[in-house]
Amino acid sequence: MAKKGLLGGGKFSGRHTSLIDEAEFLVRAAKKMPDVKKISIGVIIPARVGRRRLKLVPSEAGLLVTVRGVHAAQRLFIFTDRAVFVKESVERAWHDIF
Fold first, then answer.
1. Helix axes 83-97, 21-31, angle to 10 degrees
2. What are phi and psi of 35, to 5 degrees?
3. Phi-psi category of 72—alpha, beta or left, where left has phi over 0 and alpha has psi -120 to 50?
4. How far, in Å, CA of 76 to CA of 62, rounded?
């Protein structure tokens, strides 16, 4: 679950405020990036136990991010004009931790 204050500020949209641990890490990293305009948080999808994975798909408006945690998955959308740059930064942050 998201820590208090994490979703504060103008970079968040949507009704969902819960994050799986792995998605919370990415949201913290993306929130600090000046090229990220907004982050839209999707629903949590329960899943069988599995390994952590990250999938980033660039689009015209930004990046569709699918985060697979140990017990669940979650989709996020990161709005940015520099999708390739943000994608590389997010991947670096992911590989530094996981």
1. 130
2. -80, -10
3. beta
4. 11
Model confidence band, residue 98 (pLDDT cutoffs 50, 70, 90): confident
List the one residue out of 83, 76, 75, 34 whose CA is nearest residue 58: 83
* Beta carbons within 10 angstroms of residue 98's beta carbon: 12
Instruction: Dihedral sign for Cα 47, 49, 54, 55, please.
Output: negative
* Local structure of 29: helix, strand or coil: helix
CA angle 66, 23, 11 (to 5 degrees): 95
- Report the DSSP pairing between strands 62-68 and 53-58: antiparallel
Task: Read off the pLDDT of residues 39-84 as tens digits, 9 standing for 90 and up.
Answer: 999 989 999 999 999 999 999 999 999 999 999 999 999 999 999 9
Q: Identify the three-state secondary structure at position 92.
A: helix
